[in-house]
Amino acid sequence: MKRGVGIKAWFALVAAMALAVAGCASEEGGGQQGGGGAERGDIRIAVVTHGQASDPFWSVVKNGVDQGAEDMGVEVEYNAPQTFDMVKMSQLIDAAVASEPDGLVVSIPDADALRESIEKANDAGIPIVTINSGSDVSEELGALTHVGQTELIAGVGAGERLAEEGVDNALCINQEVGNVALDQRCEGFEKGLGGEVQVVAVDLTNPTDAQAKIDTAVKQNPDVNGVLALGPTGAEPALKALRESGKLQDIKLATFDLAPSVLEAIRDGDMVFAVDQQQYLQGYLPIVFLTNYALYGVTPTSEVLTGPAFVTQDNAQQVINLSKKGLR
Predict the structure, then answer these.
(1) Domain 151-276 is in which class?
(2) Under a CB-based contact definition with an 8 Å cutoff, are residues 146 and 111 in contact?
(3) CB 202 within 8 Å of CB 230
(4) What is the rounded distance in angstroms from the CA atom of residue 225 to the CA atom of residue 250?
(5) How high is the pLDDT of residue 57?
(6) In CATH terms, are 7-149+277-307 and 151-276 the same topology?
(7) Phi, psi for 253 (deg, rounded to 5)
(8) I need a surface site. Which of 16, 19, 125, 198 has the fewest CB within 10 A?
(9) What's this model's pTM, rounded to 2 decimal places?
C-alpha cells in the first residue's frame, strides 16, 4: 500500500494547484489546454458515493465537492443510492462511466461488490480518485490516489482513547453492516481498547429501532462501560438510549464522524470525543486533483490522509461554528 501523506503538506500543495488553475484560465472563463490534454471549461467529473447528500456526514462531503467544482471551474455530478445498496451503487458507477467523464470520484465500502464497475472505468481510461472508504484497495483497483483515513488505525486510536477513560467493556454500534470500512473500525477499536467489545447492528433508516436495540444490549450486559458509534446515525440513538436509561454518566460514549447533535453533546460533556476524518476535504480535494490531472497530467503519488483527528470538549465549539457553515 502506498505511504500516506499528512493533510497539512497536501493543503499547501492544493493551494498552489488552485492558484495555478486560476492563473491559467482566460478572462472570459474559458480553459487553457494543459499538459493532460483537456480544457478547464470542458472538464466534467462524476462523483459516486455510498452516502446520501442528505446525511449529515455526506452533506459536508458534497459541500466540498461543490466548492471544488466552483473553485476549479469544472462541471461535477454527484450521485449516491437512496440507501446503503451496493447493487444500486455499482449501477450508478456504470452509468457514470458510460457518460465518459474526465474523472471519477468513488467511495469503496465493498470492493468485491464494486470491483467490476470500477474496472470498467479503468478499461475506459477514466482517471479515478477514491475517497472515504477503500484505502486498502485503492491502488489495487487502479486509482490515482485515495483521500481519507485508514479505518483500522482510526479504530485503534478510538479504542486507546476510551481505554484511557477507564473503559474495558464496550459496544460498537454498526449502522451499515456489510460496509467493510465500518467492520475495520470495530476491529481496530477492539485492538485499541484491549477489552471486550460486542458489535450491535442497527438500521440507520430507523433511529427508534436503533435506540431500542442499543438499550437492550446495555441492559443485557451490565458490565458495559463504554459505547463507540461508527457514525452520527448510530451516535444519536445511542445518546438517547443512555440519556433515557439514566446511564449516560456511567457509560462513556464516543463516535466516529460529526453532526450538530454530536458536537453539542461533546461540548456539554455528554460524549467524550468524535473521530474526525475532515470529510469536507474528502469532497474538495479529489476535484482539485482530477482537474489538475486533466489539465497538466499531474497527481499526488500517495494517499492523502484526512484523519483521524479528534474533536473533544476543548475544541468542540470551534468545530460547531464551522459546522453551521457546512464545513465540518
Answers:
(1) alpha beta
(2) no
(3) no
(4) 7
(5) 87
(6) yes
(7) -115, 135
(8) 125
(9) 0.79
